[in-house]
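Slide 14.
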Amino acid sequence: MTPAEPPPEPVERTADSPALADPPAAVADRPSEQPVLSEEEAALVLHYLAHGRARRERRRRQLRIAVGALVVGACLLTAGLFWSRHQRPTIATGIIEPPAMKAQQSMESRAGGPAPSPPAVTPPVSPPVALTPAPTTRPPSPGTPTPPKATAPAPRVTDVRYQPSERLNSVHAGDAKETVFEVFGTRFERRRGSLVRVEGMRLRASGRSAQHAQVEVAEVPIKDAVAAGRLYWFLFGDGRLIAWGRAEDWPVATARYQVEIEYQPAPTPADRRNADHS
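Slide 15: predicted structure.
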């Protein structure tokens, strides 16, 4: 048997002794050492740092681009103003000199001195002229006839013609009064070197009837197949053509249309000749 080991000797506790440190509660309150990161956590930290660095670089690049754009714009604006200022045409002001003064200046510049002034020219003395009094115009006496002023000769009408009967085909019942007057208007025609007058339509009288508030009658001489210058009448009611015919047809028309008007067709020379032959 081995002898029993003696009990350990009591060790004196000091503050510098590593074994006899603070109790576990004190160790727990002490800050722990930096923990060790795993590979994934380290990669995430590196990625975050790299992303922040790239963002800061991007901001710096954008700032440099903006500053460069401002500098370039200011340079372009300055260059444009400078170019436009130097491209404006200069306004030259000068004094317009007469040609004689310009010629004198050119002569002085060629001769190297002022050109001699031309000699004074003495105007010739004109002989005395006897003053003749101007003839005075006397007003004509009251008994002396005043000669007429010369005017352009008016065209001479050598013959009078009548409206052709073919123009009767251009009028119809219901036509406006202005249209009918235009068809049979007065005209001047030149035939065989002479001026010929064609008689036009004339308004002769107005009245009333049972069917129209106002009736009017006009007449015009027409050259028809029977005779030249035969009188035709045209009856209008309220500005519209009602009927037309020869002078001998007028009594029948007044009874038919119940016209109250003071009008009687005057016989023309052709009508008189026709009456004599009948």
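Speaker note: The chain has six helices and nine strands.
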